[in-house]
């Protein structure tokens, strides 16, 4: 089942269940995917869909941080629910050990020797872990390995 089909199916279920949070979140995801499709002028590839989902996830994480900083627990809780829904459409996240292994392999492939090769390693690493690991976590591991 494609992501679009899955989203439409979940939207119907949310309508029937009167789940407003899920319905609104799924509609926002559908809208973001449609906007990207229009912007690019073609049907989205799975990689492009993942990029849109990553953007939606990042937006919600930033919102949660801002709401928490502003002592708006009600809005932070609502956004956490949305984040959980968005994460449900994303691929399974890599564990710390799995990410560490991929970082080590990538460093070997690239032949990185020190901190000056950080950019080369990240350029090779990110396509491998896109959507399955946080970029900040990946860059921290690369820095640790190159130190």
Comma- or semicolon-separated keywords:
147 residues; Hypothetical Protein Yqey, Chain: A, domain1; Arc Repressor Mutant, subunit A; 2 domains; 0% strand
Question: Can you tell me the CATH superfamily of the largest domain?
Answer: Uncharacterised protein YqeY/AIM41, N-terminal domain
C-alpha geometry: globular
Q: Regions with pLDDT < 50 over 5+ consecutive residues?
A: none
SSE order = HHHHHHH
- CATH third-tier fold name of the largest domain: Hypothetical Protein Yqey, Chain: A, domain1
CATH class of the largest domain: Mainly Alpha
> Oligomer, anyone?
single chain
Provide the CATH architecture of the largest domain.
Orthogonal Bundle
Per DSSP, what share of the residues sits in E-state strands of 2 or more residues?
A: under 5%
How many beta-strand elements?
0
Class inferred from helices and paired strands = mainly alpha
Average pLDDT: 88
**Terminal Cα span:** 44 Å
Summarize the biggest pleated sheet.
none
**Total number of helices:** 7
User: From the alpha-carbon coordinates, what is the Rg to the nearest angstrom?
Assistant: 18 Å
Taken together, the total number of domains comes to 2
Question: Percent of residues in helical segments?
Answer: over 70%
GO molecular function: carbon-nitrogen ligase activity, with glutamine as amido-N-donor
InterPro entries: Asn/Gln_tRNA_amidoTrase-B-like, GatB_Yqey_C_2, YqeY/Aim41, YqeY/Aim41_N
